[in-house]
Amino acid sequence: MTKTVLHGKIKEMKSLKNKKIAVLCGGRSGEREVSLRSGKRVFDSLKKQKFNVIKLDLEDNLIATLKKKKIDLVYIALHGRWGEDGCVQGLLEVAGIPYTGSKVLASALAMSKLAAKRIFDSVGIPTPRYMEIDKQTDIKKTADKIRRVFPFPLVIKPVSEGSSLGVSIAKESDDLEKILQKTVKEFKDVFVEEFIKGKEVTVGIIGKDDDLQALPILELAPKKEFYDFEAKYTSGMTEFILPARLPSALYKKTQATALAAHRALGCYGVSRVDIIVSSDHIPFVHEVNSIPGMTEHSDLPAEAKHAGISFDELVVNILESAY
Fold it and tell me: Using the 8-state DSSP alphabet, how is residue 10 labeled?
């Protein structure tokens, strides 16, 4: 690092230490507990680094509370709906309070897997084939239509949930209607996706503008059928392989695909791109997470550590994305 860049970093750090920071976590989504764990870990890191920081749970009177506590900057550690989908980002924009990570549109696009997939299709980023489920249509007719289009097994997913909440695999034709009924009833907006057999990997992206960086690729080998909520957040349920076992050219291609997905949605500061690399060496993008988990089991911190970036450094890097 040159002296000029280093001087700029030190100056920026001092500027941030003059700000009163709120780590916003919790919220109302199905990922509330994960968000609380992410928020606490981020808060502890900033506190240890002598930042002027408090921790806040998402509440109805958020803006009034932030104004009352004279908050200069919000570190968003929310996951899922009402926090990762542009809602909180919009509130903060209206209030004129800087915040970390992606802005309103990119957050909303990343949260809606269907919207993201349509963008990936439009710019030539590989993503598994999919079909939106019309919840007004008879499930039996919908299931018949799906059977004509997709081979089994296939994947049923909620449109706007994170951490693999509500994701199911229909192995046989007879399983389909029951799974569709259950998923539509619980989540309403649902789609079906082609099942691609291959290596499940995830690629963290950090930085801004010209300093964008793809972190080392993490390969996920779950002991269950796929990398679901339990496999993500339970010790011993998944083998984490860093770096991923991919040939050099395919490794670089997968990182490039992740960067392209981050840019296509307009993400900023940080993201984590989930990809399945097929047996014929195609990296298919499943989704982009605009606020990756920061818990002790989360993927992004593990990838950063492998790149020589400590958790404290990662937190500050994300913090800088607010400006």
Answer: H
Place of tokens 């890191």: 45
Q: Interior CA angle at 69 toward 67 and 73, to 5°?
A: 70
User: Any residues with CB less than 8 A from the CB of 180 and at least 6 apart, and which?
Assistant: 133, 139, 142, 143, 156, 190
CATH architecture assignment, domain 3-101: 3-Layer(aba) Sandwich (3.40)
CA atoms within 13 A of residue 47's CA, in its CB half-sphere: 10
Assigned architecture for domain 130-194: 2-Layer Sandwich (3.30)
pTM attached to this predicted model = 0.89
Domain map (residue ranges) of the chain: 3-101, 109-127+196-322, 130-194
CATH code, 109-127+196-322: 3.30.470.20
List the one residue out of 239, 208, 217, 265 whose CA is nearest residue 85: 265
pLDDT tens digits, residue range 108-165?
999 999 999 999 999 999 999 999 988 777 888 899 999 999 999 999 999 887 656 7
Query: And the tokens for 322?
Result: 């607010």
Angstrom distance (rounded) from CA 272 to CA 195: 21
pLDDT digits (tens, 9 = 90+) for 278-314: 999 999 999 999 999 999 989 999 999 999 999 999 9
**pLDDT at position 5, please?**
38
Catalytic residues: 31, 163, 233, 272, 274, 287, 289, 293
Neighbour tally for 64: CB within 10 Å: 11
Give the DSSP letter of residue 314: H
